[in-house]
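Entry 12.
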Amino acid sequence: MGTVRNVHDRVLAAPAERVGALLDRLAGADDPLFPSPAWAPIRFDRPLGVGACGGHGPVRYSVTEYEPGRRIRFAFDPPADGFHELSVQPLGPDRCRVRHVLEQDQPLGERLGWLFAVRAVHGTVIEELFDNAELAATGSLARPTRRGRYVRLLQRLTWDRPEAVEVPAGAALLRTAFPESDYTDAYALDLRPGMPADPDAWEGVLRGIPVVGRAQDELLLGEDAGHLDFRASLLLDPVAGRVTLSSVVRIHNLRGRLYWAIVRHAHPLMARLMLRRTHRRLALAAPRAAERASSHLVSGGMDGASDPVMWKP
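Predicted 3D structure (tokens):
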């Protein structure tokens, strides 16, 4: 057992009150700080405050201390023992320090995981969070954080994996594509904050398969052949926050049955792979959290002075 203490901080040319207002939006619908969708977002079971439980990705924790505009402390869920904390410290009327501290007791196995993988990802996520704080509070970003090759590899390997689901009731185009079908499946992923909810943005999920139908939240792709017909639906559900890739196959003859008897074993793997690949591509191409929240920014300071930007309450 050993104790890990990891500290990141950055001095920002902005009043502590301005940056503290950003801190209070953490995990909210308009969170300007946490670097999602590039990373799994923070989600809690209730609004930010003491007692809120949740986390981001596989990391689970709850809010144990909260000073609005100043500090949030999170305790890791058992059996983990430790905390991490975000704080804003004033350094004068127009300067402040934003700091993140992680302290955790780790057994040998977790310690090795921290040294060889978690530390690099953790550091990148925190620095990207600071990037969003700097951009939102000052209107510019001097030196954007860059993900190293190793972090990009870890990010790729740990990306969300689609789960098998029932064909959604909302996939009307797919459900009416054929009078009857010989095969049906569906796989879904949660949409991260900032990802496009327009089906047209997801058109390239099946490379080379043409679009044969469109609806408000659904895109239908497919091809007909002499031996079988294939349709695939991409349904974007902004209420549930999910994207679902569903498929149906209609077989015409013996050739189609023989063909599908072979292809059906690879189909689930390929469907998951293509959905996951497109999900990742769109997430990494999405605007920063601070950029998405730009509609909440107004020019000028509290007293009408020439501060670059301020966060609209």
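Annotation: The CA atoms of residues 180 and 293 lie 46 Å apart. The radius of gyration is 23 Å.
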